[in-house]
């Protein structure tokens, strides 16, 4: 069992990890399982196809809406109480999608459902860092990333199969029920880390909430150039993958004329590559410091994005674009959890607030960047998508190089 830093039984820590995994997987499935049905959704409401990527980007931006409040509140009220509230909100919003009567109501519910991402990032991730030691926390983050990536990998396929028997409304109702099951698991097993006595004798004290004090703490974080560079780089590095998730239904089913099943199968190489990157991270953690791991990940990351640019100039087909995305995705999988840990410990402030700002910055970059790629014609052809997605991802390089240059002599601090 992982090295647990607070006084809870290993079985409870395991139950917490499993319940958290189910909640995180369900939040992503709420997006990816419905993607094959998005053309049916817009047909139901007689809406334009532009709502396909917009609905996905609204889901991402929903994750930003409450994070600035969720993180500081969890520092005072506790991680457990806030995560239970977020899980309940997500379950209710999924169930409400069953009765949506217009594309506007549907998009609003997507925004509310996306708020669950704020609870995952600003509450559950700091809790993991506080329960487990550094190496195990990074390993668990990577493993959770693998589980979450099963959603875009399997979600389109599972959604396609379920749509043979269920309506898209019933899919959302089913997701709401699964989220309710995750809530029960979190209620039974999640420990409270705020105020808990650690095995090293330290106690993580709660921080009273104050609008003025919170604003000052956020301002101080925004003035931390290393933190800012790492947080923005997290969003930019994920941008090509996020753009692919949002635009793939239009590019593959509408532009290429593929069936929903074929669309789902073309997701497998990309997301399997991210999982491969995460497994490489798990292996290399034993012998490499975190900044070195991020530096190594830049090789497949840059080669994949460079290949995407070549694809855009040569007008390459779907196979070449997906192969390039897969190479990039290996680098993303190798770096994401390590870079998150480095960003989290760029500041000595409470991890709920720091994690909230990481999430707000990175998700804003992903959501706004995805919307810009869609508005710039990224959904019109594979060549335009490849060009804009690669350009967005490569914007992370200056930030990463500056950040890593300040981390050559040390790795993330142990909490």
TrEMBL record:
Instruction: Give residue ranges for domain Major facilitator superfamily (MFS) profile.
Output: 16-409
Looking at the keywords, is Cell membrane present?
A: yes
Record carries keyword Mitochondrion:
no
What SUPFAM superfamilies would the database entry show? Answer: MFS general substrate transporter
Location in the cell reads:
Cell inner membrane
Residues that span the membrane, as ranges: 12-31, 51-70, 82-103, 109-128, 140-159, 171-189, 227-251, 263-281, 293-315, 321-340, 352-373, 385-404
- One Pfam family of this protein, by short name? MFS_1
Membrane topology per the record? Answer: Multi-pass membrane protein
Instruction: Supply the alphabetized keyword list.
Output: Antibiotic resistance, Cell inner membrane, Cell membrane, Membrane, Transmembrane, Transmembrane helix, Transport
Q: Which parts form a coiled-coil structure per UniProt?
A: none
Complex and partners? Monomer.
Q: Which family does it belong to?
A: Belongs to the major facilitator superfamily. MdfA family.
What is this protein's record name? Answer: Multidrug transporter MdfA
């Amino acid at each position: 069992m992982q090295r647990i830093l607070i006084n809870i039984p290993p079985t409870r820590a395991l139950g917490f990890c499993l319940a958290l995994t189910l909640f995180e997987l369900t939040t992503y499935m709420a997006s990816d399982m419905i993607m094959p049905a998005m053309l049916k959704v817009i047909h139901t409401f007689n809406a334009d196809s532009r709502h396909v990527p917009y609905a996905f980007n609204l889901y991402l931006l929903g994750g930003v809406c409450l994070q600035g409040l969720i993180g500081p509140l969890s520092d005072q009220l506790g991680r457990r109480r806030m995560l239970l509230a977020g899980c309940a909100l997500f379950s209710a919003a999924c169930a409400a999608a069953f009765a949506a009567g217009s594309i506007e109501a549907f998009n609003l519910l997507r925004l509310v459902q996306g708020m669950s991402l704020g609870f995952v990032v600003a509450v559950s991730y700091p809790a993991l860092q506080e329960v487990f030691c550094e190496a195990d926390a990074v390993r668990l983050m990577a493993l959770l990333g693998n589980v979450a990536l099963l959603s875009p990998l399997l979600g389109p396929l599972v959604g396609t199969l379920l749509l043979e028997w269920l309506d898209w409304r019933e899919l959302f109702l089913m997701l709401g029920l699964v989220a309710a099951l995750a809530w029960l698991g979190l209620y039974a097993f999640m420990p409270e880390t705020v105020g808990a006595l650690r095995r090293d004798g330290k106690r993580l004290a709660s921080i009273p909430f104050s609008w003025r004090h919170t604003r000052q703490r956020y301002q101080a974080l925004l003035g931390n150039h290393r933190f800012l560079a790492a947080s923005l780089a997290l969003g930019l590095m994920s941008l090509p993958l996020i753009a692919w998730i949002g635009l793939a239904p239009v590019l593959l089913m509408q532009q290429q004329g593929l069936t929903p099943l074929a669309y789902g199968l073309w997701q497998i190489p990309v997301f399997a590559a991210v999982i491969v990157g995460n497994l490489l991270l798990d292996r290399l953690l034993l012998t490499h410091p975190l900044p070195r791991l991020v530096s190594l990940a830049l090789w497949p990351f840059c080669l994949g994005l460079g290949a995407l640019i070549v694809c855009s100039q040569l007008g390459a087909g779907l196979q070449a674009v997906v192969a390039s995305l897969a190479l990039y995705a290996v680098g993303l999988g190798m770096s994401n959890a390590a870079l998150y840990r480095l960003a989290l410990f760029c500041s000595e402030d409470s991890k709920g607030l720091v994690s909230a700002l990481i999430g707000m910055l990175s998700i804003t970059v992903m959501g706004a960047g995805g919307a810009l790629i869609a508005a710039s014609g990224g959904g019109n052809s594979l060549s335009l998508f490849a060009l804009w997605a690669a350009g967005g991802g490569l914007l992370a390089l200056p930030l990463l190089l500056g950040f890593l240059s300040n981390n050559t002599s040390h790795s993330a601090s142990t909490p």
